[in-house]
């Protein structure tokens, strides 16, 4: 069991040994191993992103189907589990249309950049014991900063489409994203106050020694989940996608592979939010019997299922209510939560 | 409590997610059609048909194309009976009009064909009576009239005293 727990760490160690040997053979400085390991970690994170997108697209459709008393996609693959591959092939086969007066480089750049923030964030999240590609002392600050960037490609997409409705949609996305960062940051800050460290692996160790932080900070957990749903532009806060039912959405002028990039990036963003929620509140990779990374996968699966469950239950919130809810309810609640946490910690210390 | 509606809604969807699926998985499971469903093909009992032509007269869309001829006993018989299904509304008026109840609709719903020439149905060539017939147009037996109360001569003379 120890072996399975450390299997990815051992594989990384093996690759590092191979690089050291190769570099020693070629006579190059051994510091180059770290540079080459960056490439290996990046490949690993890309594989994680692709796998999670592949799985969660079909799981969302299946769970949505179950909620609606129907089986979801059940034709492609055993019970429909290969549906994402069919989706990807379909989107690749579509015609790549760019509007005539649109800003062509920015139009493409927005689609490509959509994947960057989730990959950057996944670099710092510990998937298992010793399995954070970047074990930063300020891991939490780094992840919050990087997830802030996730709204920029959507804004670029709205701007580059040469469509006034897409532009307004993009503006609304930024509005929503920057507003919900405040309660998200304060909720995370309450957790940091209890755990006493910004290092994500240390927070998981704290939860292993004491108890899951969701028991200590339930309100912060709920507010973090709500903020994460708003950050990922998921229902009930899915103005950029939902506006297509009214006039046009942010992604109207995106078809085929460009849309596929945004679509998959959305699931990667959700996975980052779920990964952060697992690490900060649900004990990360800790758990009995099973290997740590498997616990991480299971806990992230539960959080993602909560996201999907909320999406298929609640109606869309109007744009002004989105902001009203954030600033008039969530921010005072998180501030109150921080105050109470601080007072309790002061009394207990 | 703030958010009670949301929690109630989440509870409803959670319960639905673990309930059995209601989908009828076609084509593995065929749909259960009602007994009197007005179906996609026609069936003609050729022995019972008296070639009266009432079905063609009842049709609102001139779907039925019939030709009659008289045989050596001067009895009418049908030489052509084609249902032009591309114009058919499947209203069932022809089935209702038939006095001998020999024209039927069937429970066949997979009636897509590859060629437009296959859509009109020649009922003399293929009567389709072996298919599952719809009960539409079946005339139930008329109820017998209630027996008249017997009034005897003495009681009517006395003034109908019970």
What is the topology?
The complex is a heterodimer of chains A (349) and B (162).
Chain A: H1 2-5, H2 7-26, H3 32-67, H4 83-93, H5 104-113, H6 116-124, H7 139-148, H8 152-160, H9 164-195, H10 200-209, H11 213-216, H12 218-231, H13 239-242, H14 257-281, H15 292-311, H16 319-348
Chain B: H1 4-17, E1 42-44, H2 54-58, E2 64-70, E3 76-83, H3 93-97, E4 103-105, E5 121-122, H4 153-157
Task: Describe the overall structure.
The complex is a heterodimer of chains A (349) and B (162). Chain A has 349 residues and is mostly helical. Chain A has one domain (2-348). Chain A is built from 16 helices and no strands. Chain A has helices spanning 2-5, 7-26, 32-67, 83-93, 104-113, 116-124, 139-148, 152-160, 164-195, 200-209, 213-216, 218-231, 239-242, 257-281, 292-311, 319-348. The radius of gyration of chain A is 21 Å and the shape is globular. Chain B has a domain at 28-137: 2-Layer Sandwich (Alpha-Beta Plaits), CATH 3.30.70.3270. Chain B has helices spanning 4-17, 54-58, 93-97, 153-157, and strands at residues 42-44, 64-70, 76-83, 103-105, 121-122. With 162 residues, chain B is α+β, with helices and mostly antiparallel strands. The chains are: A mainly alpha (349), B alpha+beta (162). Chain A binds chain B through residues 63, 65-71, 74, 309-310, 312-314, and chain B through 6, 9-10, 12-14, 16-23, 25.
Q: Measured on Cα atoms, how large is the radius of gyration of chain A?
A: 21 Å
> What do the pLDDT scores of chain A average to?
90
Q: How many helices of chain B does DSSP assign?
A: 4
Q: Provide mean pLDDT of chain B, rounded.
A: 88
Question: What's the CATH architecture of the domain at 28-137 in chain B?
Answer: 2-Layer Sandwich
Keywords summarizing the entry:
heterodimer, A: 349 residues, mainly alpha, B: 162 residues, alpha+beta, Alpha-Beta Plaits, two-stranded antiparallel ribbon, 4 helices, 18% helix, flat
